[in-house]
Amino acid sequence: MSSYNWCHNPDCHTIETQSRVRGTGDNKVLRTRKIPLTSEYIRNSIYAYFCNQNCLHSFLNKFAREVANIRAVRQPSETPIKIEKTKEESYRYRHNDTGNYQRVPYMATRTTIINKNSS
Ligand SMILES: [Zn+2]
User: Fold this and answer.
1) How far is the CA of 16 from the centre of ligand 1 (A)?
2) Pick from 8, 10, 34, 3: nearest CA to 20
3) Tens-digit pLDDT profile for residues 100-114
4) Angle at CA 6, nearest 5°, toward 5 and 11?
5) Is the pLDDT of residue 117 over 90?
6) Percentage of residues in the chain with pLDDT exceeding 70?
7) Residue ranges in 33-103 assigned as alpha helix (H)
8) Cα 20 to averaged position of ligand 1 atoms, centre (Å)
9) Ligand 1 mean position, distance from CA 7 (Å)
10) Which residues make beta-bridge pairs with 107?
């Protein structure tokens, strides 16, 4: 297994930061950043392939259609759930003639998802 990846943003090497400057004398270049895969956290994350959020989002903006077509979504998915509705007292704040707000109680309905995938 390789111990590093190169950032996958095709424009990484055009971003002007000190961390990308390589070369000697008059032969300086901006180089794609190397990502050391030193921790399991990095190896298992998207940042194993992108040196930072800016490069990740640049890549996603440039290749959004291709990324979406890797696993096209043509209809919504659904997860079966059970819900519980409860009534509870809540408050609205109503602006009044004096320029202040008045606290007005009302009975609100709270919807709580009590479980998923049970049947
Ligand atoms: Zn990068």
Assistant:
1) 11
2) 34
3) 989 999 999 999 998
4) 155
5) no
6) 95
7) 40-43, 53-62, 64-70
8) 9
9) 5
10) 89
